[in-house]
Amino acid sequence: MGDAVLGLGSATAAELAVLTDFTSKPEGLSWVEAAALPLGAETGARALDLLGVGQGMTLVVEGAAGGVGSAAVQLAVARGATVIGTASERNHDYLRRLGAGPTTYGEGLVERVRELAPGGVDAVLDTAGKGSLPQLVQLVDDPAQVVSIADFSAPELGARVTSGGQRATYALAEAVRLHSEGRYTVEVERTFPLAEGAEAHRLGEEGHVRGKLVLVVSED
User: Are residues 154 and 99 in the same domain?
Assistant: First the structure.
């Protein structure tokens, strides 16, 4: 048997797949967690890089309990940022465990965030794409400090979209390292056999998943 790895590729919902970017899978990470880690870590890191998130900054993550949102929260905390995450109340304790200050999304978001961050917000990451951008751009001095991975109307408000481009593939190894240090967790809400992939996609599109949904090809 060859080396155990985790990574990114195309058409990976299959029994066999070719990875374009990968890193070693540590023994302490299950195969289900290994499958869930790469996409969220890469997307989250790519967005944080665009926003220049670093030590001493305050970041708001809209949709912080999802796969990309939870990855971004943990990576930002590891960079020394203060993070405020939006999620339904059932996920607030989860966000606290990740290191974020939780609040709910929806009407009144701007006021709630300003109470949590009286010193202001430096950057905002929208992972939800649920139409909250008009509120989110009010949190920063420059709308360009708002990046969305899901709302492609963002440029109309002066915000930015990231959907690929220069990939942050270094994040795979970074997330694995943080996991080994106890500073990065991979939440998997539910697994599905490969034959039930359509149902997994349907649930994912509803937008209420904590962490990731994973297709399992084999129990071995």
Answer: yes
pTM of the shown model = 0.92
First to last CA, the chain: 14
Nearest to residue 210, comparing CAs of 89, 101, 52?
A: 89
- Percent of the chain at pLDDT > 90 equals 76
139-145, long-range: CB within 8 Å, 24+ apart, which pairs? 139/60, 139/110, 139/113, 139/114, 145/51
Same domain, 88 and 102: yes
How many domains are there within the chain?
2
Task: Tell whether the model's pLDDT for residue 220 goes beyond 60.
Answer: no
**pLDDT tens readout for residues 54-88:** 999 999 999 999 999 999 999 999 999 999 999 99
Residues 119 and 181 grouped into a single domain: no
